[in-house]
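Ligand-bound model needed. pyridoxal-5'-phosphate.
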Amino acid sequence: MTSNATLLHRSLNAVWHPCTQMKHYADTGDASLPLIPIARGSGAWLYDFDGNRYLDAISSWWVNLFGHANPRINAALRAQMDALEHVILAGFTHEPVVELSERLSKLTGGALGHCFFASDGASATEIALKMSFHSWRNRGFDKKSEFLCLEGGYHGETVGALSVTDVPLFKEAYAPLVRASATVASPAARRDGESPVDAARRAAGSLERHLEAHHEAIAALIVEPLIQCANGMAMYDPEYLRCARELCDRYEVHLICDEIAVGCGRTGTFFAHEQAKIRPDFLCLSKGISGGYLPLSIVMTTERVFEAFYDDAITRGFLHSHSYTGNALACRAALATLDIFESDNIIENNRALAAHLARCIAPLAAHPGVANPRQRGMIAAFDVLTDDPGFSRKFYREALKREILLRPMGTTVYFMPPYIITPDECEFLALRAADALEAALLQN
Ligand SMILES: *Cc1c(COP(=O)(O)O)cnc(C)c1O
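Prediction:
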């Protein structure tokens, strides 16, 4: 029979785990990290082989929306599997990919009517960048070959996506491989006493100055609407998106909204950009769109961009592909996910759930060692006042001991639970997180 110990040992021998110094799994001291074999999942819970359980309060890296082994998504996948698991999307099409494209387009009010498919977030970024550049070139704007991104922005870790990612930890080792992109001020960076709207307008001012000077060479501005998740859940006012839209129009620069993390209801609306009452030229989706079941990403764009490629010449087409483009099972999981949004009134019900989560973590937010409590929709975060460089790992270990899965980014602790978390589980999460915080701070 499989036990935690045997599977752990085999995993360390054969599996190279992501975003990790592998030696930390073997260490026993301050740097040590537990590696936990998971046997099964149900709802918001993960279970190991030895009978322990963990509340998945980060939705397994921001992907899971409706719980593990969700019966409705399972049933949809079983039915799809018996009909068609996958087919080449060049020269062929199928029902799930057509229906998903139609439904997503409808969710943008028809503004983004063309869907291009890939398998992960970083690939969606690559596609949006390539499409933007190529569409300008097809329209005769040969000089537009640069991209603009925000300080602290994150858009994935492939070589192209790293060029618009501003997270030194992920980027520095590969700097010689990565094309430089200009960064402009993050609207999330506030000065003392500054309101969120003022911070947004100040950042928009620096965007304006940059575009004024360089717009002829810039194809697109890429942003994460409302929350720079990988930048410690840095939140900003929708005003920035309104200004950015207006400036991108004025200076003929595409606006790419990377909603890989903030889409699918995370911020309180289905798409985060809706809160600014704007539409981007490109919208990138992934993570939650398949309910956290299968790798799927989508780049949605406008009629205008699509038309720039529509021609007799093959070289004016978008000659980009991935083997699993438009995978039928992944699209079916996404359709089942959209069904749950509709039938269970998720966007509306999440308002009450988010308010309940806020009440549960209010005592934590008032802790003297905690600063900048913040929340938008189903993402809540706070910063811990500590200079302990090992805080994040200590907190992670202490949280696991208390049956909760939370992975602070540096000194930022955040909650990003699946939408099926119950009110009682929210309370459990907040109480255990408070205990874990005390325990982690005591170890400094
Ligand atoms: C996670 C993420 C990505 C990258 O997606 P992967 O599937 O991990 O490649 C890109 N952009 C944002 C905003 C993300 O949060």
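The pocket of pyridoxal-5'-phosphate is lined by residues 120-122, 125, 154-156, 224, 229-230, 258, 260-261, 286 (CB under 6 Å).
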